[in-house]
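Why Conserved hypothetical archaeal protein? Reviewers of the renewal asked for a concrete example.
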Amino acid sequence: MKKRNITEFQILSEVVRKQPHIKQKEIADILGITVQGVSEHMRNLIKDEQIKNKGRGEYIITEKGMASLKTWISNFKNYLNDVNQNLYRYKDVWPAIATEEIVPGETVGVYMKKGIIYVSKNIESDATAKVFYGGASGEDVAIHEIHGHIEVQNGKVIVLKIPSEVMGGSRNVDYDIVQKTLEEYPDAVIATAGTVGTVIANKLEIHPDIRFAVSEGIVSACNRGCDVIAMITGKMAEKIIKTVDKNKISYTLLNASKTTDSIE
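Here is what the prediction returned.
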């Protein structure tokens, strides 16, 4: 974000909080800039039809301004998440899971699987670390002095569009397609939303990793290198596809209904 854009984002935020009665001096004090600076930015926002001057110090945000504000908020969240991940890389001590017994002082290979950091003496990796606290296979250990890059490629999403209850629910699911997908991606994170998805998971004796805040959970899992199988009914599937598409995550949509006329 450019400095000007950030300032205008802040001014739009203040307009939303305090409209319609806006005092430019209050905004200037909050942002730490001059009243003249606030006035100039507000003129730009009025010219761009993002806020409207109703006279006598009354300003309101327009639909265009609201859309801009939502876009900036989304971009800023992504920016902060990226900064936070980079900060996390520079922690002094990291937790990891040992794949065999390791002892303090050893140099181990570091890699990520299903969004979790693992360490091993017997694996070649671009990243290495020293063991701070050791442990047996499967235990959590502490590592430090990390060198190299822990490669994390974004995962992809396989959306299994399942029928809603009015379209037959779990009775109208093509379980062969579901089972084939599960076998094709054995390490994938499983996401379900709603009753039908829960029933399908129970019938297949699988335990979903994501059941709540599904869209956010899917994006988070993919950003940590996990593939995700999402068993979702029609309308929710559309919402999730919009979310992953917005976050530039690759996805495949499969119809998991027995009958084609059951697609919503």
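The chain has a mean pLDDT of 87. This is the kind of structural detail the renewal will allow us to pursue systematically.
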